[in-house]
Write a structure and sequence with these properties.
The structure is a single chain. The chain is α+β, with helices and mostly antiparallel strands. The protein contains 2 helices and 10 strands; from the N terminus they run H-E-E-E-E-E-E-E-E-E-E-H. Strands 3, 4, 5, 6, 7, 8, 9 and 10 form an 8-stranded antiparallel beta sheet that branches. Strand 5 (158-179) and strand 6 (182-189) form a beta hairpin. The relative contact order is 0.13. Residues 77-94 have a biased composition (Basic and acidic residues).
């Protein structure tokens, strides 16, 4: 059966009221003129039914499991749990390393004055800031050391080596080597209750007339001890090399006297 477009549209409401309207095979409407078009109506377009009641739910499918999904993003930190019960006391650990020395404490009060010690021999415990006189001369080449005032006086300019070994007893020792009134080296040694030896050495460049000596630089630490029978304190100095200008001058004078 063929219908024009207008009739087909008019029959659509009627088709909605029918349960089933059999139609013929699809046909093409004839050409209705120059302005018309062919209109094809299929039987499935006019056969319909009212919606029936909803059917029961279907059975759950039993397909095979799908592939494992990708790991999700980390979740937020959960709340802290409750504190657990206190555990048993553990075994003592090994001793730790020795710590660094602490800061020095405050100075304590001055103690009670002790008993007077035995009187030292002559030459022991010299006075502060005065040249120490060494009266036993082992070697004094050229006579440049003056035993009366305890000073070495330079006669040949050059580089000298000086050293000292001082015996102390009963008191601390604070001694220094002096060059023209200026300390070049200082040595401190604490009294341990026994005899001890404090040493020092240095190298100095001296000009003619320079003076070198030893002296105590703190009056309460003048523990130099002298005993001619079994202990000595030594002061030694010697020329390493003379200034070349001085040697040239000596040669010129010698040549002049020879001519």
């Amino acid at each position: 059966m063929t219908l024009s477009p207008l009739k087909a549209v008019a029959m659509v409401p009627l088709a909605l009221l029918a349960c089933l309207l059999p139609l013929a095979a699809p046909e093409t409407a004839p050409n209705l003129g120059k302005k018309g078009r062919n209109f094809t109506v299929h039987s499935s377009q006019l056969v319909c039914s009212l919606p029936g009641p909803q059917g029961p739910p279907g059975f759950r499918g039993t397909g095979s499991p799908g592939p494992v999904g990708k790991m999700g993003l980390p979740g937020k930190d959960g709340a802290d749990g409750k504190d657990g019960e206190r555990g048993d006391k553990g075994h003592p650990g090994e001793a730790g390393r020795l710590g660094n020395p602490g800061k020095p404490g405050l100075m304590g009060r001055q103690g009670v004055v002790g008993k007077a010690g035995p009187r030292g021999l002559k030459g022991s415990y010299p006075k502060e800031r005065l040249p120490i006189r060494f009266n036993r001369i082992l070697l004094n080449e050229g006579g440049h050391y003056n035993a009366s005032d305890g000073k070495f006086v330079c006669a040949i300019p050059g580089v000298y080596y000086f050293t000292y070994d001082i015996t102390l007893a009963n008191k601390h020792l604070a001694i220094g080597l002096v060059h023209n009134g200026q300390y070049k080296i200082r040595t401190f040694d604490a009294n341990t209750g026994n005899h001890d030896v404090a040493s020092g050495s240095t190298v100095l460049r001296l000009q003619r007339g320079d003076q070198v000596w030893l002296q105590i630089f703190y009056s309460e630490q003048n523990g130099l001890f002298f005993d001619p029978y079994w202990t000595d304190s030594l002061f030694t100095g010697f020329l390493i090399f003379a200034d070349q200008d001085f040697l040239n001058e000596v040669d010129q004078k010698a040549n002049a006297e020879a001519t």
